[in-house]
Amino acid sequence: MMSVSQTMETEEDLLTCLHIKFYHPQQNYKGLYGLLPLGTRSRHSADDPLRLGRDAQACTYALVDARVSRKQLALHPYRTPQSPDMLFTIQNLSQRGRLSVNGTALGYLERMDLPDKALIRFGEYEMLVIRESGEAKGSFEVEFEVLAVPPSRETCTCVPSMTPVMDTGSCGMISFPGELRVQGPQETDETLMCHS
Which residues contact residue 32 at a Cβ distance below 8 angstroms, ignoring those fewer than 6 apart? Predict the structure, then answer.
């Protein structure tokens, strides 16, 4: 007969940890991460998906950004009979925006297995997720961090986004019907040709 201490998780059990590292080009000017517990590990039950979005009521974690969907994505923990590891799937919960995982686009409600190291992109966000294995079966931890440079540059996974975003230097979405007014280089590595 098993004792209670053998069947329950103890504080000594090593928990699987998802290290989630964010980057947004305007993160220094906006309080995008004000609702995230940066730099501390948070414990979660493995039978509940972890949701990320704009709505702090509907999501486990929220971003302070009107351009993020109310529910952006979900991470679902699971286990297989062949492995003791806790694994995760990622699901796109946004009806209006695509999400990409290591360059693979996911439409609304589509999901896929999350690799041990994944670059997730939605809108202007880049999210590097690294899974650290653990032994516990009933819960896992999440630790959030903000990166100073885009993880795509740091990890050499410069996979082009499925939807090109023009950087015009303006703060809002401005449409120019009928034509596109170009006043300078659209990317930082382009140069203007000056003819005298």
Answer: 22, 24, 26, 63, 64, 65
Cα(163)–Cα(132) distance, integer angstroms: 31
Q: How far apart are CA 125 and CA 120, in angstroms?
A: 8
Hey, CA dihedral for 168, 174, 180, 181, is it positive or negative? negative
- For 141, phi then psi, to 5°, come to -120, 155
Among 161, 151, 157, CA closest to 126: 151
Query: Which amino acid appears at position 144 of this protein?
Result: F
Q: What tokens were used for 54?
A: 């704009």
Of 154, 75, 149, whose CA–CA distance to 111 is shortest?
A: 75
**10-residue block means of pLDDT along the chain (196 residues)?**
45 82 91 92 94 95 94 95 91 93 95 96 96 89 94 62 45 39 40 45
d(CA 182, CA 189): 16
Structure tokens at 137: 């079966």
Look at the pTM and tell me if it is higher than 0.90: no
Say if residue 168 is exposed, middle or buried (CB neighbours under 10 Å; 0-12, 13-18, 19+). Answer: middle
